[in-house]
User: Which sequence fits this backbone?
């Protein structure tokens, strides 16, 4: 108690001070501690605090960017079409795949408008199986 008069003379009365900031920081540290594995918790708490600080900074930059773009809508002259940014090579000519029905019909049947009729066994396959089997 003997130090209080000197502290009041040096710093003034405590009515101009608040403990709210310290209490909020302590709550945050307790919240971070609860998320640690309780081993080397100081480093884990520091990592969580740094992560939270970085996320706040990113959010601030995103919000500032959104405010700038909302304030000044871009003109058509400033928008670059994607084709000008990325020149893609012309696609190679496609050759028909021998696995397609159209390719099969064109190369094995004269009439490509109809499916081949079943053989004498009532099958579309050479061994007598039906399509539904």
Assistant:
């Amino acid at each position: 108690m003997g130090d209080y008069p000197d502290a009041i003379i040096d710093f003034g009365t405590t009515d101009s001070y608040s403990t709210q900031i310290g209490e909020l920081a302590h709550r945050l540290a307790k919240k971070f501690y609860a998320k640690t594995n309780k081993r080397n918790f100081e480093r884990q708490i520091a990592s969580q605090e740094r992560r939270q600080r970085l996320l706040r900074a990113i959010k601030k930059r995103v919000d500032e960017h959104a405010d700038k773009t909302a304030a000044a809508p871009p003109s058509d002259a400033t928008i670059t079409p994607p084709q000008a940014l990325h020149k893609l090579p012309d696609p190679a000519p496609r050759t028909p795949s021998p696995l397609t029905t159209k390719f099969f019909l064109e190369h094995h049947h004269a009439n490509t408008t109809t499916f081949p009729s079943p053989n004498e066994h009532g099958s579309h396959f050479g061994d007598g199986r039906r399509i539904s089997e």
Remarks:
- The chain has a mean pLDDT of 75.
- The longest helix spans residues 41-71.
- Residues 7 and 19 are 17 Å apart (CA to CA).
